[in-house]
Specification:
Layout lengths: L1 H11 L4 H6 L2 H23 L6 H21 L10 H27 L2 H8 L1 H14 L5 H20 L7 H32 L3 H23 L4 H7 L5 H28 L2 H22 L6 H31 L3
């Protein structure tokens, strides 16, 4: 009788607040959105204005990210593979593509507003989708094609809304060049990494470890050979009145990349991959709006309309992918 009472008491014992939070779907979604927005805003804060040491910024971010995951591994919170020379050699091209992707991203952010950057980033989805058709035998449904048309439309509308007297036309053209380059670089990186992951069976923190470790020497060499390290340029990049804030933002953005990775896995674990995909689509709206609020991006009919068109495109694409998965699952033999 006493054993039954103890069992009932154990079952009735309330879950700790920390355990409740760790299994809370809404809280995981909030953390994922917050980490994504924080990293975008932090990067924009650093590269906004006259900052031109982009390779050095990326090297600092990669170093911080590597240090954070090393500490987390030593505490037993996460795990990833030990360094292997053969695997590193095979993964090197992926790290090089990563450097190109994040460098072009930082350059695009330097010349474009956050809303325009966010909207144009949708075009990467189109390139990845058709790349999967060519490389992995994927297919594009009519609903997904409709989403792509909305993505292109949102980008066209965004260009009409991107009229800021403080920004010259030549700077906008340079920004669009870096943005399109980033879309192609991002799609190439994602497709090549997916192919390499299939061959190596890497997990999330394995890819994070090798990507950051192998990209640091590339970024440092590029910074010291291609960027201006004169005393005058250092003063421009790290002005005395905001030096500490810029350095903190650089470090914080590196740490937040770990947060995004963790929150992504957490969100999928406590909700579902469908919910996670939908959150990714919905997340573009607050990121774009944050650019209007914090960085004085042009606010007009076209800029606001482009945000909502891009937001709708993300939702339509997420629903299209979910329906495609359901159709493929129904076609499988019972």
């Amino acid at each position: 009788m006493s054993e039954k009472k103890s069992d009932i008491a154990a079952v009735a014992q309330p879950t700790s607040p920390l355990a409740k939070l760790s299994n809370s779907g809404p809280f995981s979604i909030f953390c994922y959105c917050a980490s994504s927005i924080l990293m975008t805003l932090t990067n924009k804060y650093v590269v906004n204005g006259d900052f031109n040491l982009n390779f050095f910024l990326l090297a600092v971010q990669s170093t911080v990210c590597l240090l954070v995951i090393s500490v987390l591994k030593s505490l037993g919170i996460i795990t990833y593979r030990e360094f292997n020379t053969l695997e590193a050699r095979k993964w090197s091209p992926i790290a090089f593509l990563l450097v190109i992707m994040i460098y072009t991203s930082s350059k695009a952010l330097a010349f474009l507003s956050i809303p325009v950057y966010t909207i144009f980033k949708n075009l990467t989805i189109i390139l990845i989708a058709y790349g999967e058709v060519l490389w992995f035998g994927g297919r594009v449904t009519s609903m997904a094609l409709g989403a792509f048309i909305l993505m292109v439309l949102s980008s066209v509308v965004a260009t009409y809304g991107d009229k800021n007297p403080a920004t010259g036309a030549s700077n906008l053209n340079i920004g669009y060049f870096w943005m399109f380059t980033n879309c192609f670089a991002s799609a190439t990186f994602v497709l090549c990494m997916r192919k390499r992951i299939k061959l190596t069976n890497f997990k999330d923190f394995d890819t994070m470890y090798y990507n950051n470790l192998l990209s640091i020497p590339i970024l440092l060499i590029a910074s010291f050979t291609l960027e201006d390290w004169s005393a005058e340029n250092l003063v421009i990049n790290f002005p005395a009145e905001s030096r500490n804030a810029v350095i903190f933002a650089m470090v914080f953005s590196g740490a937040s990349s770990v947060g995004i990775s963790y929150c992504s896995g957490w969100c999928i674990r406590v909700t579902s991959s469908t919910t996670y995909s939908m959150v990714g689509a919905l997340n573009k709206l607050p990121i774009a709006l944050s650019g209007l609020v914090f960085f004085n991006a042009p606010v007009n009919f076209f800029s606001v309309s482009s945000i909502f068109i891009g937001f709708s495109a993300g939702i339509v694409y997420t629903v299209a992918k979910q329906k495609q998965k359901e159709q493929e699952a129904n076609q499988l033999p019972k």
